[in-house]
Amino acid sequence: MVYNDAGGAIFSTLEHGAVHESGRYGQAVERLFATPHTARLDALAQAYGWKYYCPQNSGELEELLAAPQRAGVRLIEVRAPREQVRAQSVQWAEAVGALPWPER
Hints:
Elements: E1 2-4, H1 15-22, H2 26-33, H3 41-48, E2 51-53, H4 58-66, E3 74-79, H5 85-97
Parallel strand pairs: 1-3, 2-3
Helix pairs in contact: 1-2
C-alpha cells in the first residue's frame, strides 16, 4: 500500500509543518521542503505485472483489504491531498496511542 500525497508532504508532519499552518512562511516551507512528483503508480504496477487498485474512499479500501488475497503482488494506492497529511498524521498517532498494549 502506498499513501500517495504526490511527494514531500511528510515534512509537514515535522516542526516546520506548524510554521506553514501559522501562515507566516508557508510558501517558503513548501518551496524548500516539498518534492512534488507526477509518478503514475498504475503504470509502475503494470510494468511489474502487479494488480493495481486505487480505492476512492475508506469503504472501498476496507473492502479491498478484507477481500481474500490471491497469488501475486498487488499495489494499493491511497491518494491523499497534501493539505490533509499533517492532520491525518496527528489523527493516526492519537489512534495508535490509544491502542491497548499487550500484557507480558
